[in-house]
Amino acid sequence: METKYIDLKKEIEENKICEASNEIKNGNLVIFPTETVYGIGANALNDEACKNIFKAKGRAGDNPLIVHVNNLEMIKQIVEEPNDIEKNLINAFCPGPFTIILKAKDIIPKSVTAGLDTVGIRMPSNKVANKLIEYAGVPIAAPSANISGRPSGTNIEDIKNEFDGKVTVIIDSGMVDIGLESTVVRVINNKVRILRPGKITKEDIEKLGFKVEIDKNILGKYDGKEKVLSPGMKYRHYAPNTKCMMIYSKNTEKMIEKIREISESKNTLIICRDKNYDKYNVEYKIKMGNTLEEIAHNIFSILRKVDKYNVDLVIIEGMEKEGLGLALNNRLLRACEYNYLEI
Ligand code: TXA
Ligand code: MG
Predict the structure, then answer these.
(1) Whole-prediction pTM value?
(2) Which residues, 6+ apart, have CB-to-CB distance to 227 below 8 Å?
(3) C-beta of 95 in contact with ligand 1 (< 6 A)
(4) How far is the CA of 120 from the centre of ligand 1 (A)?
């Protein structure tokens, strides 16, 4: 199939979004931007179309898709009435980088829910995503636009490499804003359980007065024994082929010293904060930004590059586990396959 590219980098042309929405209506796949990462979308009410998402990504059939909506009416159409806590969360964080797991109605095909009785609902704030859903007139099921196991697609070059010829349309609106996927939550026994951390943090949810729990798989390694609440956590994710290691200390000098020590005896690539770049005397190093926001924005495209350096080890500077740092630790621990040192 020949993929059609729609360029909205300079201007958001609504007639072009309308054209892409027709492909959603026709049961085809469209890659589109959201504020978090790009999504690979299909009509969420069309079982066949959604099955094709799994094929294009090489995604395991037991890993459900989240469904994107652009208004509250659409939520009503696809899930049972939310309880008060769920309603509060929806009011506070939708539209935004937030996904809430709710009880699915039968209208949602089994391919989307992977046979669960729940479905993840997300209302993106990105204007192109919103218009796409509006013109399509149906909810859009969309996982992140990446081959399963790879870092989520945040820029068109990476996406083109993986999906050219596999989807009907790719909408290019440049680099995404946040760079990490949405926060996924589920309300269990009146507490808000974070299943996947993201830009909406534990602290943000606590401000609403709710008790928040962090699922133990977020920083821990899935042991294969218990049933996971979020199937995506079982899978290898984000990891480059080159071995990666994350090193962290609350004391920056100590962290730098340790990274220098390890990099002396090996052929390494160091991924570090801009401000620490000159402290490392190695041939290969990449700047990842200084703030947590900047690191989130850059990290997936950096992870996609590291295999090109042909080194023995990639060392990544670690970060605190609070705020957006929890989401970064969650993704980077997986990229490093839990090869982590905190001193
Ligand atoms: O920011 C995002 O959420 C992006 C953009 C495109 O919206 N989408 C995204 O989708 O990251 P995906 O499929 O790559 O990740 C969704 C995660 C997966 O880990 C999946 O297992 C989990 O949400 N999930 C989906 N439905 C679920 C359900 N009913 N119960 C528990 N977890 C669910
Ligand atoms: Mg994904």
Answers:
(1) 0.97
(2) none
(3) no
(4) 7
